[in-house]
Amino acid sequence: MSLATAAVGTASEVAAAVRSALESVFDAVAATRTDTEELLARVAAESRRPATVDLAALRPGLHLRLARTELVSGVGFVAAPGLLTDVPAWLEWWQSGSDGDVRPLLLDLDPEQSAYADYTHWDWFALPRDTGERAVAGPYVDYLCSDEYSLTLSAPVQMEGRFAGVAAADVYLRHFEAAVLPMLRRLPGPAHLVNARGRVTASADPAHLAGSLTKGPDFAAVLRRARPGRFRGLRLVPCRDIPLVLVVSPR
């Protein structure tokens, strides 16, 4: 086996390991999505629109996912503006405290008062809304929930065939890096992970710091093709079923 072939195989194995690390988080997102869509379907069957009181039924499942999913620091449903009858916007969001307790996120989403009232432009909301696919957003400083450098994994939720919001889960970047950096460092060249926007989510390459935007190909197109490729000497390996691309530079 040639060195080039061995490197490709190793990169594929690392991409598969990254997929494995994040799939449990997306499982939590998928379960939240299923619970929310079933809840919204029951409300629609009653010929009415949902309200915040209806979303309380999601809480047992959200608490369970926080307790059982190691990487998840926060999880919930973020409603599309106008979905609910009693508030203009809402996050049914629960997160783990430093002492292990589970607590709700309480936000002022009054558009006249709050800088966070319009969350529709953030990637974790906009990407699932615009593409119909699940997404990895960040890393970014999550001023909304935790003040931590975080990733948010999300997927669209529908009600009667229309976009109703997103199911999502937060992962602290320090926890994600602890899981994936040892894998990246085993590769024969500098390596980093990027999302569909080209933002670096983790890096063992000093030329590409986590959180930075990297120049390169259309990473969303690389993810759609779902097969390894090259771009100007870089090895590009999609993490199958996870919207991240492993980028390996030559030595």
Let me know the number of strands. Answer: 11
The largest sheet is: 6 strands, antiparallel
Q: Which strand order do you get reading across the main beta sheet? A: 3-2-1-6-5-4
What sort of overall outline do the alpha carbons produce when their principal axes are compared? elongated
From N to C, what is the helix and strand string?
Answer: HHHEEEHEEEHEEHEEE
Provide the gyration radius in Å. Answer: 19 Å
Average pLDDT, rounded to a whole number, is 89
The end-to-end distance, rounded to whole angstroms, is 19 Å
What structural class should be given to the helix and strand makeup?
alpha+beta
Instruction: Tell me roughly what share of residues is in helical segments.
Output: 25-40%
Count up the helices: 6
Strand content: 25-35%
Low-confidence stretches: 1-9
Pfam families: MCP-like_PDC_1
Protein name: Cache domain-containing protein
What attributes characterize this protein structure?
about 250 residues, alpha+beta, five-stranded antiparallel beta sheet, 6 helices, about 35% helix, elongated, disordered N terminus
Care to describe what's here?
With 251 residues, the protein is an alpha+beta fold. The protein contains 6 helices and 11 strands. It has helices spanning 3-45, 52-55, 59-68, 123-131, 173-184, 219-225; strands spanning 72-79, 91-96, 102-104, 135-141, 149-159, 162-172, 191-195, 200-203, 229-231, 234-238, 244-248. This is Cache domain-containing protein. Pfam families: MCP-like_PDC_1. It comes from Streptomyces longisporus.
